[in-house]
Amino acid sequence: MRDGRGGREPSPLWLKASPVIFLLIWSGGFGFAKMGLEHAEPLTLLALRYALVLAVLAPAALLLRPPLPPSRAVWGHLAVVGVLFQTVYFGLCYVAMKSGLSAGGIAMIVSMQPILVAILAPRLTGEVVTLRRWAGLGLGLAGAALVIGVRNELSAESLLGPALAGIAVFAIAGATLYERRFGVTCHPVTSNAVQYAAGFATTLPLALAMENLHVDWTWELGIALVYLVVGNSLVALTLLLAMIRRGEAAQVSSLFFMVPPVSALIAWLVIGEVMPPVAWAGLALAAAGVAIAGPAGSRMRRS
């Protein structure tokens, strides 16, 4: 966003804190999703999650009466991002976890998204990814791999789960680049409502066709749904899309290198999983990579 004098508007305080908040909430989502999948099939869990999100957004929309998207094109762009994020990315991730891929394993695979974004961003969004940013992305990947590797998160897993997670990486990278190129700033309630409606409209038919819709209603499922609806669906994704609009795609995507290490750190703090000293070194390496791949690591092409 730019001000009337052609300069970039200063970022609000909440946006400056967004990376930390996003990382904490997003990193915890893999574990809570794994918890929920113990009590529901993957697409059924997603359809239920999106229905609850829309139930939360409906009264907010009636109360706030936010402006609607200004054109059919904007409606379409919001829907495309919603399908890529909610149906394709999360659908594949949930099916992968249900097939046996661990939460840490899928976090590790998805953390490769920044490399894909960095490769595609110059052609699709006009960003020039410099050698400094490539170095940061490489350090981030190495640090994330080190953390997960020493914790043996990727051992003894079927090929189906990693294959689905690999396709999911393309989905979230595509959503990131599409949002960066075509995204238009809308009221958060409006954009979330359209995107989750698109996700629900495409996920529910798949669940009806492929699953029996059985749900084991337990308190563990309730806790998982609260976290996934409020944390991942409403807070984390809103912050992610805001950061994408205000920053560059490769810079924002570099945050995903921190997800596996932060997931490991949260597990250590919350449930006492011990991190070996080498894993702490990996955490520091990933953090250094994200710092190097920051704003100074890329520039926009001039027309």
From TrEMBL:
A single cellular component GO annotation: membrane
Residue ranges of the TM segments: 12-33, 45-64, 76-97, 103-122, 134-152, 158-178, 221-242, 254-271, 277-297
Subcellular location: Membrane
Keywords, in A-Z order: Membrane, Transmembrane, Transmembrane helix
InterPro entries: AA-Vitamin_Transporters, EamA_dom, EmrE-like
Main subcellular localisation: membrane
Residues covered by the EamA domain: 22-148, 161-292
Membrane topology per record: Multi-pass membrane protein
Pfam families reported in the protein's UniProt record: EamA
Family indicated by similarity: Belongs to the EamA transporter family.
PANTHER family, A to Z: EAMA DOMAIN-CONTAINING PROTEIN, INNER MEMBRANE TRANSPORTER
Name used for this protein in its record: DMT family transporter
Originating organism: Futiania mangrovi
